[in-house]
Amino acid sequence: MRIFYFLDQMIQLIQIIWYIFLASAAILLIYNLVSLLSILFYNKKFKNHSQGVSVVICAINELENLKELIPQLLQQTYKNFELIIVDDRSDDDTYYYLKTLADENEKIKHVRIDSTPDHINEKKYAIFLGVKASTNDIVLLTDSDCRPASTQWIAKMTQPFSQKNTKIVLGFSPYEKTKGLLGNYIIFETFLTAISYFTFAMLGRPYMGVGRNMAYRKSFFLENEGFKGFQKVLGGDDDLFVNKNAKKDNTAVVLDSEAKTVSKPKNSWDRYFVQKTRHLSVGKYYKKGDRFLLGVLFISKLLFWLTFIPVIVAEFKPIWTLSGFIGVLVLFLTSYIVFRKKLKDSKGAWNIILLDIIHIFYYLSVGLKVKFTKKVKWS
After folding, report:
1. In this structure, how many other beta carbons lie within 10 angstroms of the beta carbon of residue 30?
2. Are 23 and 328 in contact (CB under 8 A)?
3. How far apart are the first and last CA of the chain?
4. For the segment 46-91, what is each residue's pLDDT rounded down to a tens digit?
5. pTM score, two decimals?
6. Distance in angstroms (rounded) separating the CA atoms of residues 287 and 49
7. DSSP 109-151
8. Rounded Cα distance, 167 and 171, in Å
């Protein structure tokens, strides 16, 4: 009798697990289908404009990067722009290099910071001063270790501002391809994150952007008091500003290979772990609705993989189980590959499934680290 009781309990347990699998698969099917359709039918055509653009870059001891970046920016085909370089307490030769450039080229403006007030994070203060020093209303941001993918970067990223209602423009910033598992994973994770925030933005619910390639109107930034509400938060100068102020009718996205900026990835798992811990730590400041949606997607993906194995081993409704499993993977792979092709970056897609499994458990470990760590470090 005990054996029959035990078997009955096992069957009931497998049924529960199967229903969990089915629910998570359904959520992922819907999300991946919506992502795929959003990417496939993205055909925004913005008009050219001649409005002035201020490119703001904050740098601390980034002399070598600036020596590479600034000449590339000066080669941009867009005519009406200025470069504002915020020298944030650098103690190398950045000051003298930028001072010389600013004296020789009227497009370059050098802003020097010697100290930061206690009430605001250093990076946010640097961005605030850069935006405040801008001559133009359109502010385009990137980092000193980024490189524009083309000479059309400024023109392409600011085209949406030809529409008066556009206040924020979200761009894409991948990392250079490097050898090894870490390099492949970083590229994969960057694309995965981009698919998420582009999809939600195209659906009218923008929730984040990346400061390596983002633009907004100076007037809009100042009217909304910049980083008020999260001034002292480490990080979040990009995604928290978007999460707080971006809406369906004031935000545009640019899916164009010529509008990318590319940067170098971290070269060790430890450094990358610290970086992701910092990024995820600001998620608790997102709007409740955004936290809920992102949490549902992550939990669904985690449960999808965890429940598939016991259900398929038990051979419980195998046709339905395999159909759901294959359907999710096909839509996921298709949306990922289509997104990369859209941005003319279709290399290295053979190991997506492995990277996705790593992604789940890596994010789980980072999330637990964030949950139980009171103070997040910069590096």
Report:
1. 12
2. no
3. 60
4. 889 999 999 999 999 999 999 999 999 999 999 999 999 999 999 9
5. 0.91
6. 34
7. EEEEES---TTS-HHHHHHHHHHHH-SSSEEEEEETTEEESST
8. 13
